[in-house]
Automatic annotation (TrEMBL):
Native organism taxonomy: Bacteria, Bacillati, Cyanobacteriota, Cyanophyceae, Nostocales
Bilayer-crossing regions: 12-28, 73-96, 108-125, 137-156
Protein name stated in the entry: DUF2085 domain-containing protein
Superkingdom of the source species: Bacteria
Protein keywords: Membrane, Transmembrane, Transmembrane helix
Amino acid sequence: MTRVAFSEELQVNWVSLIADFLLVGMVFGPPIAPFLAASGVSLLPGIADIIYFMGNHVCPQPDMGLDLAPPFIMAVCMRCYGTVTGLLITRLLYGVTGGKGFYWLNQYGWGGAALASVLMMAYPLELAAQIFGLWSFNNYLVTPFGLITGLAWGLFTMPILHRWQRGGTQILVMSDRLYDFRE
């Protein structure tokens, strides 16, 4: 008796998995932190403290976060959250297109890297303009600058982080007989 079994080779792209895990944390962490802190339920304020700790170390103005659950505010400002939103949009776009399209900047080599770098400067230039007094902080003003930065960053890096990995099909032949091909 001979059996043939087909098994699809499963390959895990660990870089993609870790990047998606971090993106989920960046998308959901900052807005739920104030609700966790306000809950007063056992360990939840401790989790909120961890999120606030991370927000304080990545956001230049965490005290400008939205007031979601008074007196607790979002863990990052809207400029940073705009950046995260841009990354989320590009991740979803990559999931739909698989990296096929003229807008994925990594396919243009150094030119794409230069364009992405120029667009990513929207965030620090807006922050510098605010620091030098050209305008004051306004969530409606800073969010698009963060969004442009996140889109540029995502349009360059998503194809690098999430390359499609296709597994091949293996054919396994199993037999209960021992064949001897000696002459």
